[in-house]
Amino acid sequence: MAMAAGALRVFDADVALALTGAAGPEPHAGAAAGTVWVAVADHDRAHARGFIARGERDRVRRWAEQAGLDLVRRFLQGLPLPGSSLPAG
Which of 21, 38, 43, 59 sits in a 20 to 30 Å window from 3, CA-based? Predict the structure, then answer.
């Protein structure tokens, strides 16, 4: 969520999306390969979700991209936002 909040500020945006994780094939910074976090924020609220995407690096990246776009869509439409399957922090 800090990345999304930073993007709001740096780009003077109305809404920002941030993606991070370990696409693999090796773990990264203590995160298992396939770990993905996506976050969206505007000036009043923010939401993040984490999940594990299985498969090759390109597939993990595509899952992350799609999850991010879906999160923005839901956020802007006021739909329920998906929860995380990973512990926070």
Answer: 59
Amino acid at 79: L
Predicted TM-score of the model (pTM) = 0.89
Per-residue confidence of the chain (89 residues) as pLDDT tens digits? 999 999 999 999 999 999 999 999 999 999 999 999 999 999 999 999 999 999 999 999 999 999 999 999 999 999 999 999 887 75
Element (H, E) at 39: strand 35-41
| 84, containing H or E segment | none
Q: Is 61 exposed, middle or buried (0-12, 13-18, 19+ CB in 10 A)?
A: middle
Nearest Cα neighbor of 41 from 8, 65, 87 is: 8
